[in-house]
Request: fold
Amino acid sequence: MVNNSSSVKAFWLSFLISGAAVPLGPIAATAQIQDTSTPEVALEGSAVPAANPDAPLAAVKIEIPHLAAITAETNSAVDRALPDTDAAWVNRTLPETDTATVDRALPQDNTATVDRPLPETDAATVNPALPQTDIATVDRALPETDAAWVNRALPQTDAAKVDPALPQTDAAVDRALPQTDAAVDRALPQTDIATVDRPTTAPEITEAIRELPPQKLEIANSPQSQQVAEASQVADISSETGTADDLSIQEDAAQVTSVSQLSDVRPTDWAFQALQSLVERYGCIAGYPDGTFRGNRAMTRYEFAAGLNACLDQITKQISGFAGNLVSREDLASLQRLQEEFAAELATLRGRVDALEARTAELEANQFSTTTKLNVFAWFNLSGAFAGKRVRVEAINGNAAPLDRVPGRDPVTNRPIVQRVDDPEITFSQLVWLTLTTSFTGKDQLITQLAVGNGNAPANQYTSPGLFNTFGTPFLDQTAGVNPNEVILRELSYQFPVSNSLQVVIGPRINFYRYFDNNNFSFFVEGASSFNSNNSTLLTATKRGAGALALWDISRRLKLRLGYLGESMEFLPTSVFNSASNPSQGLFGGTNTSTAELTFSPSDRANLRFLYSRSNIQQIGGLIGAPNGRPINGLADDGFGGRLGNATANTYSFNFDWSLSRRFGLFGRYGYAETNIFPKTDRPDGTIKTQSYMLGFALPDLFKKGAVFTASFLVPFDVTGGRRFLVSGGGNGGKQYEIEATYYLPVTEHISLVPAFYAIWNANNFDNNPTIFVGNLRTQFSF
Reply:
């Protein structure tokens, strides 16, 4: 009979499934901790990004009010007849009123950039000197009111070497001008248009060029124009980059992001040479990892200040020590001049160092330990399950609690006895994990994990014996130990390096899933969230065990994991289980598993994992099966209710995850296993063959950055051979399958909401069982 409160439970379940939250911020951390069947990673704190003190410098288009732009209509070619008033080859003297772009210092009146339209009156690009009223762009320090590109000094009266005589108002050169300049191979215009020796089109700079009003043209030493570097700070082209002809405006615009990058200190500058001399004399290195000064390239002013500060500290120590008399008066004078020149940068640098030291002192005063980091996960679980009809289970006492159910066979038919169970009530439970990660050398880690919980998922109400927590059960809705609300030691292991590529793990309680069968989209913290989805349902007989592992990173793309574990599980009573610490069974005589896993990553977006596991399984009460009898989900006897001896099993598993794009990924598993059973009766030996598979997809950053939606289809335990040996878990030959959906939603840096929904067909492998619906709303706290 259906429980009278079914409609009420159905309402609460639908309310539970529809749980949602207002997104606020990404989660900061995750932990490599996992219960009976999930991969794990260590919880790391988010790095605090450092602020960039340098504001970006926008490119500025400067227009001189009295000079109009030259249009393309005035361009001409040099190799044809010139107009009446314009004809010249620019290799000689220019007229008195011409304007040119040069590669050296210019006069004091005007500032402009050559690779843009030239004024109407006399503009030309030359390599000799320009007059006092010319406009140009330079790569070095300029006079107080001018900026120009030059390669050598120009005369004061617009003179250039030319082959033929030029008119008094025109000049041409052997390079191409910008869009409004004249081209070399056409007739020149009548009003002084020059041609330069390279094509210089208007730079394609988006959102970086704006018009300046006339009153802001005087940019040198102007307090109003903070977006333009002072002329004294404009540097030459580095010796590593060649000449100015080798640079493009687009490259400069993409690379320059702050004033400090424009204010380079060149190897030819006095300051650079002075500091290099101090570095060589007093051994004060600027702080590069390779211990060199890198004197063959330009430095930003902040880089230079860092090196200068190192020298100040070193020389101060020598002055205060016995070597103070070795510091020369000339060096002290150079040092004082450098301090004055870079006072602003030194002050900024020291301010940052002081703030960093204060923050470090605060952290040291309040840190948990100098060697140990504490990570905590706490979960609240609101769970419900609903079928609407009674569900078939293989047990002789179906009304008992799930863990107390016992399987049995009908004495007449020899078939497993079947009972029916009602819908469960909605539950609200908790689970807490505390992980202490200790490092003694910086390269090793001692993992100590404590846990406490009182969860018992309502979906367990529908399980046959041996299927507890292997069903449509939310992974984090569980107890930590044998009894609710008892604190237990869940994990204790020590990992240390043997070489750069080889690590060894030893311990009395190693978490198998921390190292094997991982998957980027089924990790329990933010991925698929049930026991059946977190990892292969056929692994392993030693979820936690005593033993050793070898972790070998063969290459960046290839990793090998090897391990041997004797069973030592915290959620099973020691009096019956935990064979590794039992003197009558020991590390090698009880339940144990040897595992090898090869991971191949063809790219940074894809991982393929191939796993083989060999298990020796201890019989419990004459039966083989869960919870320490994987790969069997359920329980097996000799097929007629007789006892079994210890069993062996071979499990093969394939696991993959593939991020096709930043917002879409695929993941899946396939497992196949054979369990060899050996009856204690006169029945013949046999083999139970099983398989499981799963395929799912993930949508990272769905609706909010950091959020993840996963959906999967899975068959957790399909019996392909030897079903007659199963007294529980075989059903009537049906195939249980499930659809699961989970949405991980970070609300703040440390709080997340995770609603999940599962639908289960053919539960317990009975094809005539009703469909079961499970809902879970998890609140997750991490710090």
